[in-house]
Design brief:
The protein is mainly beta. The protein has helices at about 1-10, 30, 60-65, 210-225, and strands spanning about 15-25, 40-55, 55-60, 70-75, 80-90, 95-100, 110, 120-125, 140-150, 165, 180, 185-195, 205-210. The strands form two sheets. A six-stranded antiparallel beta barrel has the order 1-2-3-6-5-4. A six-stranded antiparallel beta barrel has the order 8-9-10-13-12-11. The model has no long low-confidence stretch (mean pLDDT about 85).
Length: about 230
């Protein structure tokens, strides 16, 4: 079941490459001689994502692309496309990207409302980027450890992690934004965060339920931002 599920989803899992320009404080020694100036440096970042429409619509986490001056998408075969951000919602930690490509493989969406505690799930993504040597996504398997989980600790950025899927499938740096898949090869969550005392996976991973993610993605595609309810 796991190998068949991976075969269905893996072709639509991508690597999200970003570049963030940061300001670097000048060396105090240079200031002393009147030559110190604030400088800039480019910092590379990596995450995961998955294709939801064959015309190049990619879903990932908002924290993966936050502050990025440039974003690119690398396919499973190593081909790279420049990407633009169509919309991002930091509260739900979701972003929608667009690449100029056609007839791409896509994932099949599942239903996250009827998950069973203990059922098999598979996390697919690019942990630690190119440390492993190529663009082929990594696969880890586990079970649904819990549903409706609310994380009390502050997550990435301003994200509010509530009503999450908890899993013991290993989720490591670089997995963020990749799909959490059930045994039928359908996406039931977006891998987003872990709780860890060491920085690595200790079996406490969390994913955004795909039913909520789908609603956010539709709003981002249609309006560029999430429409929130209000009173009045």
């Amino acid at each position: 079941a796991i190998t068949q599920a991976v075969a269905k989803v893996a072709p639509a899992v991508v690597t999200v490459q970003t570049e963030v320009v940061e300001r670097v404080a000048p060396d105090p020694f240079e200031w002393f001689f009147g030559g110190g100036r604030t400088q800039q440096r480019a910092v590379a970042g990596l995450g995961s994502g998955f294709i939801v429409r064959p015309d190049g619509i990619v879903v990932t986490n908002a924290h993966v692309v936050a502050g990025a001056s440039s974003v690119s998408i690398m396919m499973r075969d190593g081909k790279t496309y420049p990407a633009r951000i169509l919309g991002a919602d930091e509260t739900n930690d979701l972003a929608v990207l667009k690449i100029d490509a056609r007839n791409l493989p896509v994932v099949k969406m599942g239903n996250s409302d009827n998950l069973l505690i203990g059922e098999w799930v598979i996390a697919i993504g690019n942990p630690y980027g190119f440390l492993l040597g190529n663009s082929e996504p990594s696969v880890t398997a586990g079970v649904v450890s819990g549903t409706g989980r609310n994380l009390m600790a502050q997550g990435e950025g301003s994200a509010a992690y509530f009503d999450m899927i908890q899993t013991d499938a290993s989720i490591n740096p670089g997995n963020s934004g990749g799909p959490l898949v059930d045994a039928d090869g359908e996406v039931i969550g977006v891998n987003s965060s872990i709780y860890s005392t060491s920085g690595g996976s200790i079996g406490l991973g969390f994913a955004i339920p795909i039913n909520r993610a789908s609603r956010v993605v539709e709003d981002l595609l249609g309006h560029g931002s999430i429409r929130r309810p209000w009173i009045g």
